[in-house]
Recover the amino acids of this structure.
């Protein structure tokens, strides 16, 4: 960030920054353990369709049927069992929400998300954790049909918001996403520990 640059918008990743990850490998492995599934087999199918799932090209029902309810899997396992389990994995990070509340009250910055998430899980997380209270826009992979770390998703956000890259600050826990955003000229915070967010924001003179 150059001297004199002023941040006008702060973009947050959701999983790993505001909430726990929506449906990561550890959650999928736990599902396999709890329901006595073959994790290696379900992961092969997941890996084959996960990008399309996050781009909004596959519904949650179709994803579950393909990965977990194929003929090789347990017959007694239902869609509702899996949907319930998936939703239960989402937890909020209180320290981040305290900062979001202060940023929203301050009113100086446009707040939005740039996140990879499938449509149904994204809708659930937005509503369940009242994310519209804090964020003006949700630039989610399932809505834009593109995923991080693809450069185009960051270019698209810049075009839609009509901001300059140096007016934006992006926060993510994954280095590949940070590198992609930085390559577009966006200021970035690589958040490796959630409780370090406050100090990281202060380095950019963010008021909250």
């Amino acid at each position: 960030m150059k001297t004199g640059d002023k941040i006008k918008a702060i973009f947050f990743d959701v999983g790993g920054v505001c909430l726990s990850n929506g449906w990561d490998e550890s959650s999928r492995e736990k599902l396999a353990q709890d329901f006595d599934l073959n994790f290696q087999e379900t992961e092969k199918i997941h890996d084959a369709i996960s990008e399309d799932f996050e781009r909004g090209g596959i519904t949650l029902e179709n994803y579950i049927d393909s990965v977990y309810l194929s003929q090789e899997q347990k017959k007694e396992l239902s869609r509702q069992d899996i949907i319930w389990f998936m939703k239960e994995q989402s937890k909020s990070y209180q320290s981040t929400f305290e900062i979001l509340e202060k940023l929203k009250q301050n009113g100086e910055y446009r707040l939005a998300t740039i996140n990879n998430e499938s449509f149904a899980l994204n809708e659930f997380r937005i509503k369940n954790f009242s994310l519209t209270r804090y964020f003006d826009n949700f630039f989610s992979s399932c809505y834009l049909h593109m995923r991080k770390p693809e450069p185009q998703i960051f270019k698209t956000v810049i075009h839609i918001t009509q901001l300059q890259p140096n007016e934006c600050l992006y926060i993510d826990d994954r280095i590949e996403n940070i590198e992609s955003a930085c390559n577009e000229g966006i200021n970035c915070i690589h958040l490796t520990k959630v409780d370090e967010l406050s100090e990281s924001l202060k380095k950019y003179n963010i008021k909250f």
